[in-house]
Amino acid sequence: MQTSRSLWRNAFAGLICVAAWLFALIYAHAMHPQVADEAVHIPQIQDFLSGHLAMSAGLAMLPGYHLLVAGIMKALTLHSIMSMRVISAVFGLASGVTFYCIRRSLGDASAFVYASQFFLFPLLFPYYFLVYTDILSLALILAALLSALKQRHVIAAVILLASIGVRQNNVIWAAFLPLFVLWPDINKQSFKQIALSKSTWRILLPYALPVIAFFAYWAWHGSISASSKVAYENPELSLHPGNVYFFLFLFLAFFPFQAWTGVRKMFLVIRSKPWLALLFIGAAASIKLRGSPDNYAFADYFLRNAVIAFVHGGWPRYVFGLLVVLGFCSIAFTRFLLHQSWLLYLVCAFYLCSYWLIENRYTMIPFALWMVLRKVENDTAERWTMIGWFIISQFFVWGIMSHRFML
């Protein structure tokens, strides 16, 4: 009986994903105009296809994504913009499959259903059908995590090296993965035992490859950004909390059922420690969302910029601060499949703070890693979340492809 029910759940989840993917792909095919940053990425791929290897002055990241897409298109004799979008959509499928493999490796019997839910996440789904680097970057980080969990650290390190060729600051995950794998031993053994253990160095040494490659590139190029023209968007050696605030706000918006569970637990804690309420109110009042100059342009097109402009001052600022604090308090009560997953919060905060420009795209990897490692507590809430995401994702695809708005 349970097996039959699970099969029906998997079939339903799979059907929703396939339908959503096909609908969006068909709509993307019908809408040929380039969307936002596609105006940078598409010409770069076309240049590579034509044999011109010069990099665009507007390209902040290394051209690993562009070279890969151009190579696939060259091998398959493809040339159209739609071909580029289909290849990116396949990267999206790969990220969903990798998410499923991670959940299965962690013993989740409902891995297929939650991988389907992840696939429909509205902050990811529209980008499957755009010529953007983010989905390939996400797929590579998930693949590196899967390899690390399977103790294939050389493979994980090579995948991380490839991911740096797509987005340079993915080097941060080269610190997270060995720490994540070693943490159970760190808790049980002394520092000396850990440092002298051969197994420790077998885990650590492969991850030196992407780290050394990153710093070698930085020293040679003189800048982390591939182009000095856009380097101002993310100043080096500086941290900015804007994307952390935005992440917590988005968590509250897209995980309402899960957030409500966390908020209820928070109020129970406040009842026993009332002084925490004053701390949270003070934190909410001190929060102000500040982005780069680009975050204050085209607020009638970019939804994120509209939000930033709206909460810039007055009472919306304090409401936003309260929502951020509620998001923090609710996500803090997440239960994970692996005890050391709390480390994710520290590394994700650092990763998000490395960006000055506030972008929902920068939250993709932190959200994906949180989702793949969390323990699901309420199946009914997750099913309603999935149905809601299906509707929102289709709406986002329609709005983006028809040039009505951009996330």
UniProtKB/TrEMBL annotation:
Species: Dyella dinghuensis
Cell location: Endoplasmic reticulum membrane
Q: Does the keyword Lipid metabolism apply?
A: no
Repeat keyword on record: no
In alphabetical order, the GO MF annotations are:
dolichyl pyrophosphate Glc2Man9GlcNAc2 alpha-1,2-glucosyltransferase activity
Its pathway, per UniProt, is: Protein modification; protein glycosylation
Q: Which GO terms describe its biological process?
A: dolichol-linked oligosaccharide biosynthetic process
What keywords is this UniProt entry annotated with? Endoplasmic reticulum, Glycosyltransferase, Membrane, Transferase, Transmembrane, Transmembrane helix
Q: Where is the signal peptide?
A: none
Q: What is its main location?
A: endoplasmic reticulum
The cross-references to InterPro entries, in alphabetical order and at most eight, read: Alg10
The protein's name is Glycosyltransferase RgtA/B/C/D-like domain-containing protein
Query: What Pfam families would the database entry show?
Result: DIE2_ALG10 (PF04922)
